[in-house]
Amino acid sequence: MRIHITGNAGSGKTTLAKELGDILNIPVFGLDKIVWKENWTVTPQEERAFREQELIIKHDWIIEGVSSTVRDSADWVVFLDFPQHICLKRGILRSFKYLFSTRPELPNNCPEIKIIHRLIKLIWQFNKYARPSILREISKKNYITICNNNDLYHFIESVRNNKVIIMDTKTLTAVRPI
To answer: What pTM does this model have?
Structure first.
């Protein structure tokens, strides 16, 4: 099973991926270590494409991040489409926690203080630049869009209690037993 969790910075991709990985016993990978190198250096496109290919050829995975390549290869997509102000609040709180240190899912020497201005800009521009292409691409896939904490909680609990994959984009009904 291949699951892509995508959404704005601060939407909860990493947290959800870890939780689903634990529940479903599927390996979890984050794109942050592919997109970034030490010191917040952007990975060259060719290297990023190669490293994404290395992940998507695996049989089972949960990959969190923003990537058309990963989205195209997923059996289904979870789009965390939380409001910008929620993502901004979460992103800033996370940044303060790691202001002078590196988050576990990032390469070395990537303290948030070096990129917080870029994070804020990214969050505010997400709906204009990334969201439309995500919505267009997932419309051709099995997907679920989660827009608030209540739906997120019910999604996780449904997977946890029933060990099912949720695919119906309107009603969160179980369609595939694990």
So the answer is: 0.90
